[in-house]
């Protein structure tokens, strides 16, 4: 049975696993906005589970962030890019969306597997989970991390990440070209050079294993799965994307010094990069 990755499969959004109850509304959170004032974001959640058979339990957990002050539809479509079904960006609308996604997931597991699921004789817990995390809002650049994981039989569960940065000043998703004019092939050479700067933490009998020792690709792509802070641009890769599953997810930094002379003037000024 194939594994599911909620983010990659563009299906749902996460919270934490739970039992048979819904948490209808998350409390408002305050995230530091270093340019102006506190940035307030709300959230909606669903945590629920059901028994398909005596041996099979299925859980669905999901969390969506809510941005009451954002009104630009194109920007909101980009923020909630996982599913085109989201049309109502209000708190009530997003809660209703999650409730429907949960019910649809339970129904699909039950109906799609009814020909063989009764043959499951040992206890199994399948799940689908995903969440949106507001990581930062600095100088008008809002970084959201989308994390999803799932299990529907097989050797192990799967998980994946999607990083997106939104330019709130210009109401758009930030693209790599908005940061640097360096050609992608040159960035990819830097990624290969920096592959071992942040180790994934993988160990074997001889100790720590380098990221470079687990690569499955000859060239590391300069993907759109990036974010940044005041020191580096970071590219984030999910399991299997560039390395073996045992490597986990891998993050590779590219310093502003590496990109010197190619940084977009507006970006450089807003981020106060020397």
Automatic annotation (TrEMBL):
Q: Which residues form the signal peptide?
A: none
Question: Which Gene3D superfamilies does UniProt cross-reference here?
Answer: Fervidobacterium nodosum Rt17-B1 like (3.30.565.40), Heat-shock cognate protein, ATPase (3.90.640.20)
Can you give the residue ranges of the DUF3298 domain? 183-257
Which InterPro entries does the entry mention? Answer: DUF3298, PdaC/RsiV-like_sf
Question: What name appears for this protein in its UniProt entry?
Answer: DUF3298 domain-containing protein
The species is Chryseobacterium sediminis
